[in-house]
């Protein structure tokens, strides 16, 4: 009887010590008012490697509404691919949500338009916000950082095995020979 009890206690201790308990929630400064994201508002353009990516954010009541557009050139084939995306940041009963809805292939669901993906606010600060959707394949995190001049947008997996970032400046189009 004493051996059986000792084995059960040892089993529970090993279970807990090996990380079976859930990870603690991250400590972060929560957004309390929609105006705390006003640094994202406006027209933004990224001109890198012959590609042009634009995002435009505006306010719709307490929500932020965004539209994105990318024009990407395959440097080997010269083929230009365009895509667009609708974005929305809104307060939900459970917190802040970033809705991303890419419109690949002209918005045809059979050709790759799979509807919006929900990302929950994970961390935020004075000029930063990070949204996560761990169940999504890619991206699992969308992060925005503003340094007062440049808006950096980054998409990535939670473990950092795949990522891409854009450095936006205020504007609506790339200037010739600035790419």
Question: Overview of this structure, please?
Answer:
The protein contains 1 helix and 10 strands. The protein has 179 residues and is mainly beta. A 10-stranded antiparallel beta barrel has the order 1-2-3-4-5-6-7-8-9-10. A hairpin with a 2-residue loop joins strand 1 and strand 2. The chain is globular, with a radius of gyration of 21 Å. The chain starts with a helix and ends in a 9-residue tail after the last strand.
Rg is 21 Å
> Helix fraction?
10-25%
**In percent terms, what proportion of residues is strand?**
over 45%
- The N- and C-terminal alpha carbons lie at a distance of 76 Å
Helix/strand structural class: mainly beta
Q: Could you name the CATH class? A: Mainly Beta
What would the principal axes of the Cα set say about the shape? globular
Q: How many β-strands, per DSSP?
A: 10
CATH architecture assignment name: Beta Barrel
Strand order of the largest sheet: 1-2-3-4-5-6-7-8-9-10
